[in-house]
Amino acid sequence: MVAEVNQGGEMVTAVLRTVDPTVPVKEVRASRGKWLRAEPVAALYAQGRVVHARHFPELEDEMCDFGPDGLSGGRSPDRVDALVWAITELLLGRANRPRIRNLS
After folding, report:
1. CA 71, 44, 2, 38 torsion-angle sign
2. Where are the domains of the chain?
3. Measured on CA atoms in the order 7, 17, 77, 97, is the torsion positive or negative?
4. If you count Cβ atoms within 10 Å of the first and of the last residue's Cβ in the chain, which end, N or C, has fewer?
5. What is the CA angle 70-89-5, rounded to 5?
6. Is the distance from CB of 4 to CB of 85 less than 8 angstroms?
7. How confident is residue 4, by pLDDT bands cut at 50, 70 and 90?
């Protein structure tokens, strides 16, 4: 699980660990705005590297409404933000990690 810990997010990790102390939780801290964090993920969608296995109407509505200033009406794009963190971890987060190759 990935949990953003910027504003009290440590509570999320604490609650998850209360339910299951063995659950792996990666704490992430936002250092850039949501729009900038979403750009690499949007590129993956444009390349066809990300597709949804079923319909997620609330998420898809947020994705369509999301812009540099968030959502219309000043709402926060919570679903989009969670999606961006998840895809970043799954598809982009491993790019800079060391790899072990078997040379034999």
Report:
1. negative
2. 1-30, 32-104
3. positive
4. C
5. 60
6. yes
7. confident
Q: Which helix (H) or strand (E) holds 3?
A: strand 2-4
Q: Which amino acid is at 52?
A: H
DSSP 63-100: HHH-BTTBSGGG---HHHHHHHHHHIIIIITTTTS---
Looking at per-residue confidence, does 79 or 100 come out higher?
Answer: 79
Q: Tell me the C-alpha distance between 87 and 10, whole Å.
A: 21
pLDDT tens for 41-79 read 999 999 999 989 899 999 999 999 999 988 988 888 999
Q: Is 46 helix (H, G, I), strand (E, B) or coil?
A: helix
CA distance 104 to 98: 19
Q: Which two tokens stand for residue 75?
A: 């709402």
